[in-house]
Amino acid sequence: QKEVEQNSGPLSVPEGAIASLNCTYSDRGSQSFFWYRQYSGKSPELIMSIYSNGDKEDGRFTAQLNKASQYVSLLIRDSQPSDSATYLCAVKERRFGAGTRLTVKP
Amino acid sequence: DTGVSQNPRHKITKRGQNVTFRCDPISEHNRLYWYRQTLGQGPEFLTYFQNEAQLEKSRLLSDRFSAERPKGSFSTLEIQRTEQGDSAMYLCASSSKWGSGSAEQFFGPGTRLTVL
Question: Which residues of A touch B103 (CB under 8 A)?
Fold first, then answer.
């Protein structure tokens, strides 16, 4: 079992829709979780971090964490074509999933 | 704040040669990380430093790989006797965290290695 698993996608949503990205992890003792966005040919850039169970909102982005289910998700509201990228889930800051490629169609 | 810088940005080498990459972190950051990323995959953790101490090295990392961070400033990653399978993007990241726990990382632009 991989430490961090994500659906590879691609995930395609129309502009203005909600995009939902999911991540599961194997280490039950993990305490910190991060979402990064990576545009093609660029380095990852941090979107959000979450440490406690529940939801954390930042603008159009909401991270959700459920430690009992070992599950973390990222919701992107009002998706824009500029959100088209690969979204990486990271656990304990240095264990990354393979990423989910998101395409937002105008 | 100039961000994380990496040099060179591109490196082409022949199989069997040694290569060395440099990373300059954000100046006030005490943690420095090295990752390797291949197409379609997420960053694969290689090693990380807190100040000059190397705190963790991936068990999957070959003995051909070595990293240093003298004086807790810049870091170098050396690959000896390169193999074609070493071709990848090598990413460096830094963060500011004291004590235990995790912190947000800031990534450099990466060094793309091609082994012929």
Answer: 93
- Residues 6-45 on B with a CB inside 8 Å of A are 33, 35, 40-45
Nearest to B97 by CA among B43, B56, B49, B34: B49
From start to end of B1-116, where are the E strands?
A: 5-7, 10-13, 19-24, 31-37, 44-50, 53-57, 65-68, 75-79, 88-95, 106-107, 111-115
Mean pLDDT in chain A?
Answer: 94
**Token pair belonging to B8:** 């060179």
User: Looking at chain A, how many residues does it have?
Assistant: 106
Angle at B43 between CA B41 and CA B45, to 5 degrees: 130
Interface with A, mutate which of B102, B106, B107, B112 (most A CBs under 10 A): B102
pLDDT tens readout for residues B7-41: 999 999 999 999 999 999 999 899 999 999 999 99
Tell me the HSE value of B89 on the side-chain side, using a 13 A CA sphere: 20
Question: How confident is the model over B56-79, as a mean pLDDT?
Answer: 92
Q: Report the C-alpha gap between B44 and A97 in whole angstroms.
A: 9
Within 13 Å and on the Cβ side, how many CA atoms surround A104?
18
Which residue from A31, A93, A99 is facing B103, i.e. has the nearest CB?
A: A93
